[in-house]
Amino acid sequence: MALTEDRPETLELTAGDEAVVRHPLGAFTRPSGMTGWRSWLTTVDHKKIGILYGATALFFFFIGGIEALLIRAQLAQPDGQVLTPGQYNQVFTMHGTTMVFLVVMPLAAAFANYLIPLQVGARDVAFPRLNAFSYWTFLFGGIVLNSGWFLGGSPDNGWFNYAPNSGLAYSPGNGIDFWNMGLLIAGIASLVGAVNLIVTCLNMRAPGMTLMRMPVFTWMALVTQFLLLFAIPVLTVAQFLLMFERLFGAGFFDPEMGADPLLWQHLFWIFGHPEVYIMILPAFGIVSEIIPVFSRKPLFGYPFMVFSGIAIGFMGWGVWAHHMFASGLGPVSVAAFSLSTMFIAVPTGVKIFNWVGTLWGGKLRLTVPMAFAIALVAQFTVGGLSGVSHAVSPSDTQQTDTYYIVAHFHYVLFGGALFGMVGGLYFWWPKIFGHHLRDRLGWWHFWLMALGFNLTFGPMHIVGLQGMPRRTASYAAGMGWDFWNMVETVGSFLIGVSFLVFAYNILVSRNNPPAEPDPWDARSLEWGTTSPPPVWNFDETPVVHQLDEWWHRKYTEGDDHRLVLAAEPPTPFATAAGPSEPPHLPSPSYWPLVLALGLPFIAFGLLYTYWLAAVGGVLVFLAVYGWSLEPSVDPAGGHDDHGHTGHTGHAMPGASDDHAEVTDEEPVAVATTPEDTTEVSE
Amino acid sequence: MSATTVDATSAAHPTEAHHTSTGLSNEKLGMWVFLGSECLLFGGLITTFLFYREKEPLKGPAIGDLYDIPYTSVSSFVLLMSSLTMVLAVSAIKRHDQRNTRVWLFTTALLGASFVAGQVYEFTIFYREGLGYTTNLQGSAFYTLTGFHGVHVSLGIVMLLSAVVLSLRGRMGPERAETVEIIGLYWHFVDVVWIVIFTVVYLIP
After folding, report:
1. ω before A532 within 30° of 0 (cis)?
2. Rounded Cα distance, B35 and B41, in Å
3. How far apart are CA A600 and CA A617, in angstroms?
């Protein structure tokens, strides 16, 4: 439409723009504020939601870390008395479950949410309200999972919750139910998030941003979302079967009923092995962003990086039974899964070599994020090699359920995924918050963490091969394990100290001077916006011509193939003043929060009294209809370029981008401004 | 809202006026992606059923002895016909035929409801013949699988009826044709899943 009338230059929100105040379903006024605590409850901005994901993940990391330290305190000496065996079972179960589902996965979701729209040149994700719903659902799932600490006993069956131990006969308390319901709810969050981010990557790319020009982080996050999309429903099936067993006596995994408990193992690991790549691929993506920046070279073998990530995504589905070599699968299955497990090391190795190739001959700058990235490459290689040793099934039969396994997966998940993500935090912190983390403190954090990590998990290889079993609350003196266990405990407390340094670094970072928009001289689109990026991300949708677009706008190649600064510095993609026309942004909404809030009510209702479930059901019903009938862009809100046009005579003017829902009424005008190419709809 | 500068095509198909990288609207692509995930959900449930069908039940009747194939064939036919009426509804709304849109949406919902009612009746018969939800593993797996499918059909009915109500209130005009199409995608998917279930669970011994 002709955008003729005067508009405010900045996005000052006129909360309560008096023209139309609508009460969807008569429940409450649509929120419109973009600041203050309430804006965090109602936000649909992918950047705020990313920050919420990250903060929540760090909170759960604190809880999971305390659980880890309790484990190490218990095992510091033979015959540990810190925890009773029952408490120990709860603590290691909750440690594993928390770190997998409430720390690593949401940290990856935090990066994916924050970065994908920025890296593909979009104004937001495809479905901003669903994005908010994902976050709240994840949070409530985490709360349900942890509620056992207050409601008479936490889950105590390990993070993979094997049958028949999970049945009522062996686990009569509600602990397993909290595990089951909490993860079911968190699974909804992952699934919805996967749909959202896949559509964002495929559909919301800026002009010229072909798939093979997407930054590697976005690529790896995309592969991760596909893995989530297909892996989560398998876990959901297993969890529903377990729920029906525990609530209604269906006995799917109960040998008394003639069931085969191995069914649980198969279903769980068909989810569980892709889950491993769900956790590591985002970290691979982060490192693939960090290393080229601090080597001042393009990523070596970009297409190989992308295709090896995709190959890992496919092959990850064919290796699950290597978690079950000790369960008596039979020689043919064991041989097949041994082979496939060895094969999957190939694309992973390709990645390692490509990172090394990127470093080779680069102008290296050793910064804190670079240190974390290099640590990932080294430590993941160790974990990857011990992983190949599990692929050899005779050796795996010896290693299984020992500390060797614990060493292996901590090297890939802590030494790999977590190091990568912490490096990512240091790397993008100035972009996200507009302040650097302090370098000195960062180095202290890095060295303490690297030292503590290797002291904790390195010796586990040794005691594991000596036969020390995992998941056992204590060990006798004189087994030869005393010394290394003490070393491990000391190391684990060093890790704890390193994160205290990190917390202090975060606390004081607010006083640091403002960060430059592009402090690292980096390569992808997000570095062309302000730090932090404006709500609207890009003043004008960038047009992409090649991989590493932002870099190539800064530098050209001289005659001798050396980098030369471009004749004039590139125009930033965003300015504080904002675009000349107010951007088209989705409006905040209460409904994602209300809808998510219904789910824990249903979960607790199924366990305690169906009345609570009814309350949850009503909440869900109201929220679904409230949501569907609410346009994704509030016509009365101040941040919608259609909303000010002042046309009247219809119940809901505007909201042109709300077409797919069972809502709106009118063939609304479709603005033909360039802004609309990245328009967000839901 | 006066559509001053909007050309005729984009008014008729507002979603297509929004450029997306694939040319599909976000909503439609989102539904396709979601249905991909649903395949694995039903895949897991069907696998569980097949796994336990091989096992001799410890007590109670075997599920294979209870099937009434002619009866279930009829209810399957009813469900398949609802895909036809769904197509007619999409076609009607694209032709700006509001009345027939409502007629066919409602017919689709009605056929779906008959299918669900038939399923409830079938469950009742099986229960009377001695197969409760917890009688044996075959029963548990059967009721869980077909129950999940029934819930999917029921959710589809809710969506269809919501669309009818919105259409009656004038909020489901031709510009919303894609909404009907997306509901249709879901509906056809649920039908296709039933074809698989009917074949694998009922017909193949």
Report:
1. yes
2. 10
3. 10
Whether the CB-CB separation of A305 and A299 falls below 8 Å is answered with yes
Phi-psi region of B44 (alpha: psi -120 to 50; beta: other; left: phi over 0): alpha
Q: pLDDT tens for residues A271-317?
A: 999 999 999 999 999 999 999 999 999 999 999 999 999 999 999 99
Q: Which two tokens stand for residue B94?
A: 């694209």
Place of tokens 């799917």: A252
Task: Output b/e per residue, A478-504; b: 16+ Cβ within 10 A.
Answer: eeebbebbebbbebbbbbbebbebbee
Asked if B98 reaches chain A (Cβ–Cβ under 8 Å), the answer is no
B52 touches chain A (CB under 8 A): yes
**In 3D, which of A585, A574, A579, A582 has the Cα closest to residue A530?**
A574
pLDDT in tens, B72-95: 999 999 999 999 999 999 999 999
Q: Which of A127, A237, A265 to mutate against chain B (most B CBs within 10 Å)?
A: A237
Q: Residue B140: which of A196, A252, A645 has the nearest Cβ?
A: A252
Look up the pTM and report it.
0.90
pLDDT (0 to 100) of residue A171: 94
Q: A649-681, pLDDT tens digit by residue?
A: 333 333 333 333 333 333 333 333 333 333 344
Nearest one of B137, B123, B130, B124 to B61, comparing CA atoms: B130
> What is the residue whose two structure tokens read 């190091």?
A419
Q: What is the DSSP string of A460-505?
A: HHHHHHTTPBSS-S---TTSS-HHHHHHHHHHHHHHHHHHHHHHHH
**pLDDT mean over A67-94:** 96
Burial (CB < 10 A; 0-12, 13-18, 19+), residue A69, is: middle
- Write a three-state SS string for A330-363: CHHHHHHHHHHHHHHHHHHHHHHHHHHHHHCCCC
Determine whether the interchain pair A233/B26 forms a contact, defined as Cβ–Cβ distance below 8 Å: no
The predicted complex's ipTM stands at: 0.92
Cross-strand partners of A557: A563
Q: Which residues of B touch A204 (CB under 8 A)?
A: 20-21, 26
CA distances from A272 to A160, A165, A172, A227, A279 (A): 8, 18, 25, 11, 11
Judged by a CB distance cut-off of 8 A, whether residue B123 touches chain A is no
What is the C-alpha separation between A603 and A141, in angstroms, rounded?
10
CA distance B108 to chain A (A): 17
According to DSSP, residue A151 is labeled T
The pLDDT tens digits for B142-155 are: 999 999 999 999 99
The reply to whether omega before A164 is within 30° of 0 (cis) is yes
Phi-psi region of A525 (alpha: psi -120 to 50; beta: other; left: phi over 0): alpha
Distance CA B85, CA B78 (A): 11
Subunit contact B6:A657, Cβ cutoff 8 A: no
Q: Which residue reads 């996005």 in tokens? A: A11
In one-letter notation, the amino acid at residue A153 is G
CA atoms within 13 A on the CB side of A284: 33
